[in-house]
Specification:
With about 90 residues, the chain is mostly helical. The chain has one helix at about 40-90; strands at about 5, 15.
Length: about 90
């Protein structure tokens, strides 16, 4: 049923009159319904048992390569800062 709105002059929002009726399902309870979507626990269990084991070695190697790639400029910058400090110390 479509709600009907009543607009008055002294309010900024219209008043809405809704005539909705709740539906009762007699003879049914929550225990008899099986979930259609698998739970998050089952999804994650399946992922860690099947898929994560195959991808772990490749992802670990890629992670190590990324860490080495990120560490090289940091070490180079630290060396440059120490040389700069030595240069200022000799003035």
């Amino acid at each position: 049923m479509k709600p009907t709105s009543i607009v008055t002059d002294h309010t900024s929002f219209p008043l809405t009159d809704c005539n909705y009726y709740s539906v009762t399902l007699s003879g049914h309870c929550g225990r008899c319904v099986k979930p259609v979507v698998p739970s998050f626990r089952n999804i994650s269990r399946h992922y860690f048992q099947k898929e994560a084991r195959h991808d772990f070695v490749g992802e670990a190697i890629l992670f190590a390569m990324l860490m080495i790639t990120a560490a090289v400029p940091l070490v180079s910058a630290a060396y440059a800062v120490t040389e700069l400090c030595r240069g200022f110390g000799q003035l």
